[in-house]
Amino acid sequence: MTPTKVRQGRGRKVEVGKFDKIITDSERISSEEVHGLLTQVLKDRLFNGVRYVKGGQVGNLNEKSELEIR
Q: Which pLDDT tens digit goes with each residue over 8-52?
């Protein structure tokens, strides 16, 4: 692959090398991954309810634990 030349500003030519392309592609991929994970967490919380941890046990906010019933 040969580096491509991109015009920036007032006619200056800036060469974009292989590593620059790798860096920009990896930044784009990582941002898409973060966006996807955040979306997955939000959907899980919206549609499956909010969970909490109390005393080492995971439960839903709608459920009453055995300790609260007694």
A: 667 666 677 889 999 999 999 999 999 999 999 999 988 887 666
In 3D space, the residue among 41, 68, 44, 45 whose CA is nearest the CA of residue 57 turns out to be 68
Give the residue extent of every domain in the chain.
Answer: 4-69
Give me the sign of the Cα torsion angle 14, 17, 23, 26: positive
Q: How far apart are CA 41 and CA 25, in angstroms?
A: 25
Do 61 and 50 contact (CB within 8 A), yes or no? yes
Residues in Cβ contact with 17 at an 8 Å cutoff, skipping those fewer than 6 apart: 3
